[in-house]
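Problem: given the chain below (285 residues), write out its structure.
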Amino acid sequence: MDFSPIEKIIGEYSRYKEPGIGLRYLRHSDILPLINNLSDKGFYTPIIAGTSIEGRKIYKISAGTGPVKILVWSQMHGDESTATRAIFDLLNFLSSENESLIKLLLSSLTITFVPMLNPDGAERFTRENAIGIDLNRDARALRCPEAVILQKLKDEIKPDFSFNLHDQNRYYSAGKTDIPPAIAFLAPPFDFENSINGARRKAMQIIVLLNRELQKVIPGRIAKYSDDHEPRSFGDNFSRQESSVILIESGFYPGDEQKEYIRELNFRALLTSFILIAEDRKSVV
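Solution.
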């Protein structure tokens, strides 16, 4: 598969990088102007998917009209903002004039982004939401409105692929080394036996290709996230519900305290995934 368009786009990444969000402490008020700008451009129609416990609006933003459905959510943990920034970079790219590639993506895929699922936690820069619940342990009980919103979107969209975007700290390692991973991937298991169904196999195939391409850029700094089954988490449950789930964990890179390079790696990983899925769409629908 020809990945030369990716290298050209990354070479022009500064064109797409959203200048309004450069800090890790990303709050709900920081993304509202960006969402309003998307509406003004006329390319996207952000829709309120629901509200958080403290009444902050949670948005879904869709791009494309293709047959393959993709659901992408970030900042489920309020203090994990790297992928939220990358999502707005991607939205800028998808509304740019890169005609041939964007035409392929938007005609093949329908991508629904949910930036900042946990705005109350983002306000406090905490993992949990306003009442101290980890949303990624609420997939079964659905005690919180934020969790209900995500499950409702899953039921409505029926995504072929789901991208669960997180941050991890620098104390993890890339394999049996002392090197902290810049990025980690996982196709979450849906049972304690670590079984593989068709949906999980497709996620694994995407991850294999992602790893192959990113190793060229950050050799030795990519890890497989722990595949211990967690029955309360959304990734494991969506995998059980036959969506191909890809977990992306934003890690650590030397000298990148604000995780701006990791942000670019997220942009690259997501865009590469979308291209892979778009070019192989006949086998995933």
